[in-house]
């Protein structure tokens, strides 16, 4: 006897999928962040840094870095049975920015990862998401050898709008990364609600 849906329980749920980007400068920890939170083995497109790339890949401040993302990083996290989050890490160097438009299509929001030792490296990512009206959160990756600054000082240095969340995080720690991603979802929902209200008034 084949049991009906009411006897078996709920029908299989087709999950809603959301996309979040992780962007920022070269060597800021984007690949690490995606890997820390992904429930699957993350897809990575890393290549070794070479002498030929030395003039364009500035490793000052991240001298221990030997690889770089050349297309994207990809990870997945299931928030609920009916809600799955796809996390895409963008390449950091200027020469790969043509990929950003493709990755940004359909994105709910973004994390702009920042390193206080090279804060200027995240300016292009901030500008990118502001120009395209994609809601984003700035996550300051707290490297062990980086100076600690008050959140408001970092906010002022980045010239962020007051409504843009800025949080301290550790890209190596799963719980820390989850909090950042939850912040993106909450900010994106508030951003969408504000835009709807603006349209209807």
- Main beta sheet strand tally, sense and closure: 7 strands, mixed
Distance between the termini: 57 Å
The CATH class: Alpha Beta
- By CATH, the superfamily comes out as P-loop containing nucleotide triphosphate hydrolases
Number of domains: 1
| Overall strand count | 7
Overall geometry: globular
The CATH architecture assignment turns out to be 3-Layer(aba) Sandwich
Q: Return residue spans where pLDDT drops below 50 for at least 5 consecutive residues.
A: 1-7, 49-57
- What percent strand? 25-35%
The structural class is alpha/beta
Helix percentage: 25-40%
Strand order of the largest sheet: 2-3-4-1-5-6-7
| Elements, N to C (H/E) | HEHEEEHEHEHEH
Integer-rounded radius of gyration: 19 Å
| SS summary, helix count | 6
pLDDT averaged residue by residue: 83
Description:
- The chain has 201 residues and is of the alpha/beta class.
- The protein has a single domain (16-44, 69-200), classed as Rossmann fold.
- The protein is 30% helix and 26% strand.
- The chain contains 6 helices and 7 strands; from the N terminus they run H-E-H-E-E-E-H-E-H-E-H-E-H.
- It has helices spanning 5-8, 30-37, 100-104, 123-131, 151-158, 174-200; strands spanning 16-24, 43-48, 67-80, 83-89, 109-114, 136-141, 166-169.
- It has a 7-stranded mixed beta sheet, sandwiched between helices.
- Helix 2 (30-37) crosses helix 6 (174-200).
- The longest helix has 27 residues, at 174-200.
- It starts with a helix and ends with a helix.
- The relative contact order is 0.18.
- Pfam families: ATP_bind_1 (PF03029).
- Belongs to the GPN-loop GTPase family.
- Keywords: GTP-binding, Hydrolase, Nucleotide-binding.
- InterPro entries: Gliding_Motility_GTPase, Gpn, P-loop_NTPase.
- This is ATP/GTP-binding protein.
């Amino acid at each position: 006897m084949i049991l009906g849906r009411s006897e078996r329980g709920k029908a299989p749920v087709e999950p809603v999928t959301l996309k979040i980007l992780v962007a920022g400068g070269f060597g800021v920890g984007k690949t690490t962040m995606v890997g820390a939170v992904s429930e699957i083995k993350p897809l990575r497109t890393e290549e070794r840094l070479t002498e030929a790339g030395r003039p364009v890949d500035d490793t000052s401040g991240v001298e221990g870095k030997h690889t770089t993302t050349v297309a994207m990083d990809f990870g997945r996290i299931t928030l609920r049975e009916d809600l799955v989050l796809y996390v895409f890490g963008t390449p950091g160097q200027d020469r790969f920015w043509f990929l950003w438009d493709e990755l940004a299509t359909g994105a709910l929001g973004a994390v702009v990862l920042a390193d206080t030792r090279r804060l200027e490296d995240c300016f292009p990512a901030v500008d990118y998401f502001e120009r395209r009206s994609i809601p984003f959160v700035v996550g300051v990756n707290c490297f062990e050898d980086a100076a600690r600054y008050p959140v408001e000082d970092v906010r002022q240095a980045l010239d962020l709008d007051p409504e843009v969340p800025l949080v301290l995080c550790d890209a190596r720690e799963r719980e820390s990364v989850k909090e950042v991603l939850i912040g993106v979802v909450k900010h994106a929902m508030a951003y969408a609600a504000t835009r709807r209200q603006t349209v209807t008034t």
